[in-house]
Amino acid sequence: MKNFQPVPVIVMLLFTTVVIAQDSTPIPLGNRQLYRIDPQSPHGLQEIFQPTGKPFPFVSAHRGGAQKGFPENCIATFEHTLDHSYAILEIDPRYTQDGEVVIHHDPTLERTTTGKGAIKDFTLEKLKQLRLKDTQGNITSFQIPTLNEVIDWARGKTVLVLDQKDVPALERVKAITQLKAEAYVLLIVMNFKDAQACHALNPNVMMEVMIPTLEKAKQFDQMGVPWRDVVAFVGHTPPEDRELYAYIHAKGASCMIGTSRNLDRRILSGEVSDMKQIEGD
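^ thats the sequence. predicted structure below, dont judge the formating
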């Protein structure tokens, strides 16, 4: 497989089709070949996200790329996504009653599992007895994974993006550090102060930071966090200010644009039947 080059703008989709890689050869899993992204080092991860000026999309699988038969935030789903394409995976950590961290989007269990109630009211042992539901509500044989299980699985296969949910930024940095996963796990942080604190705790951890305006970009530039450690999330609707993109690229960072709340919904609802109808939106 060819080594794709990093790009200036990242697009985040519910299910991915293309992504770039430092080491992009398929990796066998039993009789299957997974499309692999393996940055191999924190510096390699930084290189993947460096802008080059080439309009090549870097796409992220929202909650891992769930679909019929494959629940969101599920290792089997992650592997199914990598069966078809290079992809990075956005996932959602949450605390259990006994202080473990599992991967699950909702604070409650009903929508995506056979359980009822809040995640925080169940021990890990109890949660492991439940089974995940797919996007159509069908019960599968899959369990809720822990953060440690997913990070261990992802090593040498792909890049993980850890959303916040109820696990604070510094706790996620500690988990990445403990598992020596700086080369392939980055985290979403909610504000500039959190980004500053995370960098101080572990300067090798990359972060996705909300930077929706030129004013915010200039403010972030004063925080002392190197731009090489940052992917700038500029919004779910692409900002029209071209100076924002130019400023961020000049600083050495790429921009991410979310589609899960707009373009993806138009496709999933049936409003759009052909991707060509939304090209350029």
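The domain at 9-97+151-278 is CATH 3.20.20.190 (TIM Barrel).
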